């Protein structure tokens, strides 16, 4: 079913002076204005577009890419504040409304706010809400340990970082397992560490699989060779330093050098790692 607020690949069925009409099935024929149409577009071709309502509440198509679609979360910048709410830059010519009733703090121009994009049932308009918890799935999550997921950093807790998982659930990345700077609203890949008996989800930024550790081991050997056989890194080195130099967590680093040591490929001294000749 075709709906506004989503991206689709649609057939071009008619060309007029001001643009192209696309077959949007249940929504009828939708206009793609000339200024937003790809060059050389012709009737009979297909084009990927995002559907939304224009200022006259007409369904219109655009080739611009929104920063979030219906059902998704994103960190969006406040570009202005009006009498009905704040307006957010979501990548389209028409800004996205964040009504005052859906805000959790007074809006400030230039500030980023994490929002959920949804359709307001009262008037079918696409709007945003900063009250993100009410849009998260209350049904217990069913993820497998080690499963890769998409996350958005939604804030901090006493334990670490709160993250939105696959636009549906929340999880936590513990502070002692964070090996790189994380920012509010940041999107990245993560892995399910475990789903606890109470339904809460623990996340980790690296899977720690054998293939991943093999890759890290290869990287460490390569770095040692390029550095003349010595790296001033040990299991006591700060996690931030390890990540800056090798791009891996301290836990992965310790496992990797332990394996390489057992294979006789390096030695671990007080001053650092030495490549075995």
UniProtKB/TrEMBL annotation:
Domain Conserved virulence factor B first S1 residue range list: 4-64
Residues that span the membrane, as ranges: none
Residue ranges annotated for the Conserved virulence factor B-like winged helix domain, each copy included: 220-275
Highest taxon listed in the record's lineage: Bacteria
InterPro entries: CvfB_fam (IPR014464), CvfB_S1_st (IPR039566), CvfB_WH (IPR040764), NA-bd_OB-fold (IPR012340), WH-like_DNA-bd_sf (IPR036388)
PANTHER family, alphabetized: CONSERVED VIRULENCE FACTOR B
Similarity-based family: Belongs to the CvfB family.
Identification of the protein by name: S1-like domain-containing RNA-binding protein
Species for this entry: Shewanella corallii
């Amino acid at each position: 079913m075709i709906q506004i607020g989503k991206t689709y690949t649609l057939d071009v069925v008619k060309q007029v002076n001001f643009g192209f009409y696309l077959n949007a099935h249940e929504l009828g024929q939708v206009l793609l204005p000339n200024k937003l149409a790809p060059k050389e577009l012709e009737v009979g071709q297909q084009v990927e577009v995002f559907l939304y309502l224009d200022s006259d509440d007409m369904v219109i198509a655009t080739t611009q890419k929104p920063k979030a679609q219906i059902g998704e979360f994103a960190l969006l910048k406040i570009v202005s504040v009006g009498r009905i709410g704040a307006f957010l830059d979501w990548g389209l010519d028409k800004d996205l409304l964040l009504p005052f009733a859906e805000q959790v703090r007074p809006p400030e121009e230039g500030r980023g706010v994490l929002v959920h994009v949804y359709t307001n049932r009262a008037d079918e308009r696409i709007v945003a809400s900063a009250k993100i918890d009410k849009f998260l799935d209350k049904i217990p999550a069913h993820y497998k340990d080690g499963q890769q997921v998409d996350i958005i950093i939604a804030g901090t807790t006493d334990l670490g970082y709160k993250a939105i998982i696959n636009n549906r659930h929340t999880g936590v990345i513990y502070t002692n397992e964070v090996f790189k700077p994380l920012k509010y609203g940041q999107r990245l890949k993560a892995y399910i560490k475990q789903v606890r008996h109470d339904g809460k989800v623990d996340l980790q930024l690296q899977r720690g699989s054998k293939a991943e550790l093999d890759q890290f081991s290869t990287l460490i050997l390569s770095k040692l060779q390029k550095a003349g056989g010595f790296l001033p890194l040990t299991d006591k080195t700060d996690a931030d330093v390890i990540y800056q130099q090798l791009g891996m967590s301290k836990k992965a680093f310790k496992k990797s050098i332990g394996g390489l040591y057992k294979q006789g490929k390096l030695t671990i001294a007080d001053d650092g790692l030495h490549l075995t000749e």
